[in-house]
Specification:
Blueprint (H helix, E strand, L loop, with lengths): L7 E5 L11 H13 L3 E6 L2 H5 L6 H4 L7 E4 L16 H5 L1 H15 L8 H15 L4 E5 L6 H11 L3 E4 L20 H12 L2 E4 L2 H10 L7 E3 L6 H4 L13 E6 L8 H13 L6 E6 L12 H6 L6 E3 L8 H6 L3 E5 L10 H8 L3 E4 L6 H5 L5 E3 L5 H17 L2 H11 L4 H18 L4
Parallel strand pairs: 1-2, 1-4, 2-3, 4-5, 5-6, 6-7, 8-9, 8-11, 9-10, 11-12, 12-13
Helix pairs in contact: 1-18, 6-7, 11-16, 14-17
């Protein structure tokens, strides 16, 4: 009997664990899903030290990587983030502005993506070496940054290896205004067109974003598909029974990075409005997460919380994935505050639904996340971001939370199971294997 080697996936992902960025969970889940479906998986990523200067690290994430996966950490040119003056050359030390300009020009010549473009050379060399040593069946690049897609593009052009662009974030769609940010003549737009029209598939997280790109690239429209985000059961844990002391005090919670786009001011205004009506007097809000992407509280969350002088809104800092299940178990209802955009789908919403807890949507109904939540049994959406509408939604969620049973939570979890990451990603891994077997690729 002849032996057929398993297909080999080259998965290119800058923010792979132990990065603590929100996108790291999708990267981890995708690599693991292909490994579970019998693929040999090689992850091409950056050294761990890079994350210490950028996203930060969460060591508990790295422990979740399937042990069958090979991880290649190749050098990443990141001189801009090196702030130790003792390591600077004389040019940078004596003329830092000129050095920055030269660095930007050099990067744009390699790949038009500030801070990341110079990685293209290392990626292409590594992809060539990996393919030579262990022929690659399929390449998937998961942005951002967008330079990750150049490895697959390179192998497609040099060795006819199929490649997939898992976009997640978009390159030239402003998620809030819906406008295109680049002109046709911009090098970034030219590169995106080249990549998307060459890719065997391009994945986006929701239908509005996918359709925007189909309209922009009609020649590639049939190869643009939606691969939604989801939740990881091992991080969320099982549905928790209602807290024994919820009758004494209901606890609302939000878990996630809070920026200037996060409507925390509207949430607090609505909360105080509800309490002024005499509702939610025996309740509090616990906020968890990082303040700004760089930890600089650019949204002035702490100042906003201070406006609730009765102390009913508290900030409790970030939560690691290892602690997330216990944190959810200490809450009675969840708050989902999002900036306004019809293209916006929060990765957090899937994890929220997996808890079975009531979810208060504090965002404009136009958000794509409304389509995701529609039908969830314990959803309390705000009709708008006006304080009275937010107050109404909070009060409705409190009523649900006060009466919810563990059976109710299990029913909500059962509804949400359609978004378990394995259910989203493993069929894709199977489809690609079957497709490549048909053409003799595996």
């Amino acid at each position: 009997m002849s032996h057929v080697s398993p297909p080999h996936l080259l998965y290119v992902a800058w923010g792979f664990p132990p990065s603590r960025s929100g996108g790291a969970y999708r990267l981890l889940a995708t690599a693991n899903a292909f490994a579970r479906e019998g693929w040999d998986v090689t992850v091409l990523t950056v050294p761990r030290e890079v994350f210490l200067r950028s996203t930060g690290v969460d060591p508990s994430m790295e422990e979740r990587v399937d042990p069958r996966i090979r991880i290649e950490r190749i050098p990443f040119p990141h001189d801009e983030t090196v702030l130790d003056l003792r390591t600077w050359g004389s040019f940078r030390a004596h003329a830092p502005e000129l050095w920055n300009g030269w660095r930007g020009w050099r990067t744009s010549r390699v790949f038009p993506e500030p801070r990341y473009g110079l990685w293209r050379t290392n990626l292409e060399q590594a992809a060539t070496r990996i393919h030579r040593d262990h022929p690659v069946t399929l390449t998937i690049g998961s942005g951002n940054p967008n330079v990750v897609h150049t490895a697959g593009f390179h192998l497609k052009n040099t060795a006819n290896v199929p490649f997939v662009m898992d976009y997640r974030d978009t390159w030239q769609l402003d998620m809030y205004s819906g406008r295109r940010t680049l002109t046709d003549r911009h090098p970034g737009a030219q590169w995106e067109k080249r990549l998307i029209e060459s890719a065997d598939e391009a994945w986006f997280v929701n239908e509005p974003i996918a359709q925007w790109h189909r309209d922009l690239y009609p020649q590639a429209a049939e190869r643009i598909r939606v691969v939604s985000n989801g939740f990881d059961p091992e991080f969320v844990g099982d549905v928790a029974a209602p807290r024994a002391d919820r009758d004494a005090e209901l606890v609302f919670g939000n878990i996630g990075t809070m920026t200037s786009q996060t409507p925390i001011p509207q949430l607090v205004d609505g909360w105080l409005s509800a309490r002024a009506r005499g509702a939610l007097s025996d309740a509090r809000i616990d906020l968890y997460g990082y303040l700004g992407h760089q930890g600089d509280d650019e949204g002035n969350v702490l100042g906003t919380i201070a406006a609730a002088v009765d102390g009913s809104v508290r900030y409790n800092g970030p939560v690691s994935k290892a602690e997330i299940a216990d944190t959810y178990a200490g809450l009675d209802a969840l708050i989902l505050p999002l900036g306004t955009s019809r293209f916006m789908t929060s990765g957090k919403v899937f994890e929220y639904m997996a808890t079975g807890l009531p979810i208060v949507s504090v965002h404009d109904p136009v958000n794509a996340v409304s389509d995701t939540l529609r039908g969830y049994p314990a959803w309390a959406p705000a009709a708008s971001l006006e304080s009275e509408d937010v107050a109404d939604a909070l009060i409705r969620a409190a009523d649900i939370a006060a009466q919810q049973t563990v059976a109710d939570r299990r029913a909500a979890r059962e509804w949400a199971n359609r978004y378990e990451r394995a259910r989203v990603l493993e069929p894709i891994a199977r489809q690609w294997r079957e497709r490549l077997v048909e053409v003799g690729g595996a």
